Amino acid sequence: MTVTETGAGELTTRQLTTLYETMCRAAALDTRLLNGIKRGEFATVTWPSRGQEAVAAALGLALRADDRLVTTYRGLHDHVAKGVPLTEIIGEVLGRSVGASRGKGGTMHISAPDHGVMMTTGIVGSGVPVGVGLALAAKKQGSDRVTVVSFGDGATNTGSFHEGLNLAATWDLPVVFLCQNNLYAEMTPIEQTMAIPHVADRAKGVGMAGVTVDGNDPVVTYRALAEAVGRARAGGGPTLVETVTFRFEGHYAGDTSAYIPEDQLATMRAQDPMATFPDRLLAGGFTQGELDAIRAAADQAVDDAVRTVLAAPVPDLDEIRLDVYADGLAITHD
Ligand SMILES: Cc1ncc(C[n+]2csc(CCOP(=O)(O)OP(=O)(O)O)c2C)c(N)n1
Ligand SMILES: [Mg+2]
């Protein structure tokens, strides 16, 4: 897949460290949840993103705390990057009262508005029009916050994607469409569902800027996202950013990925950002000790959060009646 370098300028040591810290937390979260499921420590369902860490880390660095995010069932990395505390994420995955939605949403439906995560959806493509609505609200309110909608390559074959992009371009909305192209939709490779080489080319049809970047490179991805977010914030309208990446685990925890050819797996393993980015940091002056410490801290934070969550109660039965209707809630327009 051909990729385009965008933007310029060196990242600071602090920015590079933040990228790697987020990547390590995201990878540790996937691994810990998969291991826990495999050994029967807990029962739940996840859609792992192992391999896609660079995209989420870049996203986190490009966004402000008050920016909005809409993501999918494969969005745990995005939640981490947006700053949702690990206990709130894992609490939701394991259905405990400490979850972001007090354990009632599950992996597919995490929302954490305090951190800008407005919706996580299991309906492929459905986040796009919701993100367009959030961006329209920001524009009408005169706010400079930006909305990012994160989705997969398969989602770009849905009607909602095309309808949403068309409206966003027509109304010049402050939104960034982030396609995490992991080359598969469930078990189907992208070549069997799309006749054009780049998802980003779909932007041209609605008069929107579109760019394809190497989603396994957090620096290149950050630059592309920072440029798109900056354009949206300055009133320059929406962008479709396609990040080409890969997922090394199955579509869902338990899927053995037997449909992924060995040679493709080997090619993509050589580009695994959790291997290539540390090498690049070492070449750039980081020490092995520093990188090991970042990784160990991430593993520890995830382990601690799992322990906290497992010690927390499941939601009280009365919770089932709460948050169903807006009774008692003040509806405001801030
Ligand atoms: C509207 C709709 N159609 C079909 C499905 C079943 N489904 C769940 S995930 C998925 C694949 C989506 O692939 P992609 O958008 O590339 O995201 P990825 O899972 O690779 O992150 C499909 C078809 C669904 N959830 N919603
Ligand atoms: Mg996909």
Helix content: 40-55%
Average pLDDT metric:
94
Task: Give the overall shape.
Answer: globular
Oligomer description? single chain
The strands making up the biggest β-sheet line up spatially as 2-1-3-4-8-7
> Can you tell me the number of structural domains?
1
Low-confidence blocks of residues: 1-8
Characterize the largest beta sheet: strand count, sense, and whether it forms a barrel.
6 strands, parallel
CATH homologous superfamily grouping: Thiamin diphosphate (ThDP)-binding fold, Pyr/PP domains
Which features characterize this protein?
binds magnesium ion; disordered N terminus; 12% strand; alpha/beta; two-stranded antiparallel ribbon; 10 helices; six-stranded parallel β-sheet; globular; 8 strands; Rossmann fold; binds thiamine diphosphate; 334 residues
Q: Would you write up a description of this structure?
A:
- By secondary structure, the protein is of the alpha/beta class.
- The chain has helices at 13-38, 53-62, 76-82, 86-93, 127-141, 159-170, 218-233, 262-269, 273-283, 288-310, and strands spanning 68-72, 117-121, 147-152, 175-181, 184-185, 188-189, 209-214, 239-244.
- It has a single domain (13-37, 47-74, 114-308), classed as Rossmann fold.
- A 6-stranded parallel β-sheet has the order 2-1-3-4-8-7, sandwiched between helices.
- It starts with 12 loop residues before the first helix and ends in a 24-residue tail after the last helix.
- Residues 152-154, 182, 184-185 line the site of magnesium ion (MG).
